[in-house]
Amino acid sequence: MALFLVEASILNRHVDEIRTALDQVSKAAQATHSELIEAQIGKDLFRLFAILNAQDEVSVRAAFLNSNLTIKLVKPVRLVGQDLTVVRTQKDKANYLVEWDLPAGLTMDKYLQRKAEKSPLYAQVPTVSFERTYVCEDLSKCLCFYDSPDEATVKQAREVVGAPIDRLTSLETLD
Q1: What's the angle, vertex CA 20, arms to CA 100 and CA 15, rounded to 5?
Q2: How far is it, in rounded angstroms, from Cα 55 to Cα 31?
Q3: Consecutive sets of 10 residues in the chain, 175 residues long: mean pLDDT of each?
Q4: Domains contained in the chain, CATH given
Q5: Whether the model pTM is above 0.90
Q6: How far is Cα 132 from Cα 143, in angstroms, rounded to an integer?
Q7: What is the DSSP string of 93-127?
Q8: Which among 39, 52, 51, 53 has a CA at the least distance from the CA of 10?
C-alpha cells in the first residue's frame, strides 16, 4: 500500500454535495481494500485535496469514478512530520495548507535532511502548529498543513524555517 494525493476541482459545488461525493469515494475505496485517509477543501471551494492509502493509481482513480469529482492530479506521496495513525484522528485540526513547488534537482534525502534541521525553528512562532507534510515522490511539490490563528502567522512560520509559499489556502472543515 502507498499514499496518493488526489487533487480535484470542486467549482460550483456545495459543501454538502462534496461530503456526499467523499462518502462515495470512501465506500468505493474500501471495496478495493483502499482507504480515504483525509480530504480537505479550500474555503474558496475551488479545489479538494485527498489522501488515499491504496495499492496503485488505478485503485485511486476507481474510488473517484462515480463521485462526480473532476480529478486534476494523482501522485504518490510520502507523509512527513506525522504518523498516519495520528493523521487519521486529527485530520480536521489543520486550517491552512501551504503548497510549495519544490526546486529542480532536490533529492528526497536532501529534502528530509532540510526538514529535520528546520522543523525545530517552528518553536519561534508558538501560535502556529505544524501538523504534517505530504511530499510528492517525484519531488514536484509538497503540501504542508498548519493549525494557525491566521494567514499572517502561517507566513511568519514559513519565513522562520526559510521555506517559500507558492499557494496558501484557508481550509474548510468537512466534519
Answers
A1: 60
A2: 12
A3: 96 90 95 94 91 96 92 96 92 93 94 94 95 96 96 97 96 79
A4: 2-172 (3.30.70.3090)
A5: yes
A6: 8
A7: G--EEEEEEPPTT--HHHHHHHHHHHGGGGGGSTT
A8: 39
